[in-house]
Amino acid sequence: MPTTKSADRPLQIGLIGFGCVGQGLYDILEKLPELNAHIRRIAVKNPTKARPLPHDRFDFHADDLLQDPELDILVEVIDDPTEAFRLVSTALRQGRRIVTANKAMVARHLTELVALQREFGGTLLYEAAVCGSIPIVRTLDAYFSHEPLESVSGIFNGSSNYVLSRMTEEGSDYTPALAEAQALGFAETDPTLDMAAFDPRSKATILAAHAYGLLLEPEQVLNLGIENVTAQDIRYAAALGQKIKVVASLQKLPDGRVTAFVTPQFVAATAPLYTVEREFNGVVLEATYAGTQFLSGCGAGGHPTGSAVLADLVALRAGLRYSYAKLTTTEKSTYTTDLEVEVYVRRPDEDASNLLTFSTISQDNPAEGYAVGYVSLAQLLRHRDALRRSGTFVARTGKIRLLQAKANTISETAALTV
């Protein structure tokens, strides 16, 4: 545990990782000396990699920073979720204060991380793990800690949004749009986490805890991506006056239960997310009493994400910690996948058509290879990997139908205002 320091002493920070976010934070703090916050030690993995600071500024064993009592706060910004959890959990067992930007780690281990904070008195903040510069975690945890939410939805991944924007603007197919995103640094060499919607699934899992008090495993949340999207699908949406966006949705159903999914979705021109383009993110909150709130901003990048880390550093200095109010409320939310969603499905061949069974069909166009109708969320969860492998593209219309087994009826809800 770091020793208690005087208020006028510079905040001593230990930085673990010096990639895009780590360098962004370092640059921000160098340009804001009035914050009185100093990165005292930086731990990196590779001692031979060329870096923009002198070699003697770096440590090469992150555990050394965990054992340094002079460091007031640790910042973990590495890309390995397993190692990140080892470091963060060790720091919490020491009762330390720590900031992380690792969304996959937080989503996978949130139950344990909450328990460690309660047992050992440490504090973990992770605003930078969700939507870059948009302060969505703090907004949910502080400002909507006790107000019921009807839905939380948004574009949580800038890489896939960039690809879809370019396809819409140029009328191009997926491959050249992805190559452009990779060339500009908006998409990784291996784009799977972003394009297959694993990244926004992690973020939705994290927000479920703050919005509804649900501690979910990431696999419980449906994730369908855009690897199989084509110019034909973009044109189909445009003919409806809509765009295709990858939308993460957390929604309270008419019976009070909550569901979640991350998929491509048709977004109408009247919806807030319609105007969120390229690498930007956007979040729409539907609160029971406050109404609709819309937040947008840069979802990635060194300075935008570094600014979220900075906000957490300032918050830790002021003694802030997450309340997790909805985890402790007596009225617990219940998670469900017992519903049907209306989807547009374009199949590359007849074999792919056997993966999904429509309960009702509103459009069927064999010549163009697509159909629109309702399928169960359970089917989509069960076949999500097979759908990806088969080349099938699936996009939600936004409409859902809740299966009410006791009455043996189906209750339909309108599309989300995204």
TrEMBL record:
The lineage of its organism: Bacteria, Pseudomonadati, Bacteroidota, Cytophagia, Cytophagales. Transmembrane segments: none annotated. Residues 17-127 form the Aspartate/homoserine dehydrogenase NAD-binding domain. GO terms for molecular function: homoserine dehydrogenase activity; NADP binding. GO terms for biological process: methionine biosynthetic process; threonine biosynthetic process. Residues 135-314 form the Homoserine dehydrogenase catalytic domain. InterPro entries: Asp/hSer_DH_NAD-bd, HDH_cat, NAD(P)-bd_dom_sf. Pathway: Amino-acid biosynthesis; L-methionine biosynthesis via de novo pathway; L-homoserine from L-aspartate: step 3/3; Amino-acid biosynthesis; L-threonine biosynthesis; L-threonine from L-aspartate: step 3/5. This is Homoserine dehydrogenase. It comes from Hymenobacter jejuensis. Belongs to the homoserine dehydrogenase family. Keywords: Amino-acid biosynthesis, Methionine biosynthesis, Oxidoreductase, Threonine biosynthesis. It holds the Pfam family NAD_binding_3. Its EC number is 1.1.1.3. The keyword Zinc-finger does not apply.
